[in-house]
């Protein structure tokens, strides 16, 4: 019998890779789509005819109940959120509603309509924030350093609460930074790859950056969505850190990207205080041993390969 899955945030980076994965496994895929004046379908344009879209919004409980009824899902993947840390400082209330309360709305819709469905919540390494131990694992205490991180902590714990209170199969993937050519242009990795391509093609003269010393654990989004799927195939719901176990500075990211096109980054990068966060997260490094051992999950794309993939994709796009 064909499995059915409902994905919120299906037009985003993770949603598009996850939809591809599930379709390749024979799933019937439903995508929750929030109405916008201009539909953003770039990431899923190549598979949009294979997806059944349902209009809805994480802040509209009735629309979520309707979406669960229509899709009758075996699996629900809640990936939708206000997901940009910088914007969360400008729109803290909206971030709290979508990224925090929205999780409760989705869980409640599943509980009311299809409580036996398996639920995945997209948690984030930003929950660790000002880290109290390195590397960070599932039991590391949270210390978020942004409204986004705080909202993600709420979403994480409400998922745990529904699992323990209602005996629902609800789990969270604590994903460290994961990137791809489908990453939004406002994120630092894509900001760098796009700028490098523009500078190489003579369309831009400089790249203005914030803190070059900040360290992140960067992986490939296509690898990470496999971990999401694996979490919902286990006998028992649980939470998992998904990471590479390696850390790289923003400066390393910039250096790999520029050198890939034969340029010296120091000739083009300007540090601008405007891009430094009010409260910086200096070091994120995940311990994914549990996911490796219990899920059998493994990385396929390394850091340098990922950065070069993104630069090549932006070069190709801009050359057209």
Compact summary:
The protein is α/β, with parallel strands linked by helices.
Describe the structure.
With 320 residues, the protein is α/β, with parallel strands linked by helices. The protein has two domains: 200 residues, NAD(P)-binding Rossmann-like Domain (Rossmann fold), CATH 3.40.50.720; 93 residues, UDP-galactose 4-epimerase, domain 1 (Alpha-Beta Complex), CATH 3.90.25. The protein is built from ten helices and 13 strands. The chain has a seven-stranded parallel beta sheet, sandwiched between helices. A two-stranded parallel ribbon has the order 7-10. It starts with a strand and ends with a helix.
What's the layout of helices and strands?
Layout: E1 4-8, H1 13-24, E2 28-33, E3 51-55, H2 61-71, E4 75-78, H3 85-90, H4 92-113, E5 118-124, H5 147-166, E6 170-175, E7 178-179, H6 188-200, E8 207-209, E9 215-216, E10 219-220, H7 221-231, E11 240-242, E12 248-249, H8 250-260, E13 269-271, H9 289-295, H10 303-319
Helix pairs in contact: 1-7, 2-4, 4-5, 6-8, 6-10, 8-10
Protein name: GDP-mannose 4,6-dehydratase
Keywords: Lyase, NADP
Cofactor: NADP(+)
Protein traits:
single chain; 320 residues; alpha/beta; Rossmann fold; UDP-galactose 4-epimerase, domain 1; two-stranded parallel ribbon; 10 helices; 41% helix; globular
